[in-house]
Amino acid sequence: MNSYSFRQGCRSRGDFRIDEIMEFFRLMQEAFRFVALYDTKEDPVELTASFVRKLFEKGVDNRFPQIGVVEHFFTMQPRRRDDNTVRFEIHTGTHPEKVFIDTYDIQMGDPRKVPDLSYFERSIEIFHPFEAYVAESENEYQLNAYNRQQAIPQFDKPAIIRGFHYLDEGMASSIGGINFCLKAPAWHVERFCDGVLIELVPGLFDSSNPEHLQVQEEVMGYFNLL
Fold first, then answer.
1. pTM for the full model?
2. How far apart are CA 94 and CA 160, in angstroms?
């Protein structure tokens, strides 16, 4: 069964974005209805700003503090996790002079774990990323999305167009601009947050559905991304 993830990429600014992360966790607690989060050591995470800040500060590599910190959070203790476990991977605090970006990702696995997409819209409004999308693992593999992205300097252009895909104004300009995006042959496109939100089909994109793949191909052709 295909797995799904939600990825948000933000230009680094050198701080942990604690306020945004706490608002994000509160929103995701509502979305996934988890009782607690756990760190990689099986310990429960206290969802307070002071606790999370100390956790990030402890995780910074003293040799390379400018690359920020990566922390993982689980909705079940890692050793007991199963297909129902949701994992949050946060890379934050990167110094602006570094090429790395800050990311706020959610690994959901089973499509039945994916909440209403409106939660992701609200998350975008919290972080104001330059790009955010819901990725389906099989679709990412079929289109070689990772290698495509690595070939694009500074993440200045989307590698592919996913079923649910947000681009801020700067990213939208890389494929023709917001007004051009609004005319894409997708199911729904609208101005949203600091840019544009593209939804290829109603609901969750499924790469086993030929109609979904056809829409994706048409939209990527429109943006000259094939």
1. 0.94
2. 25
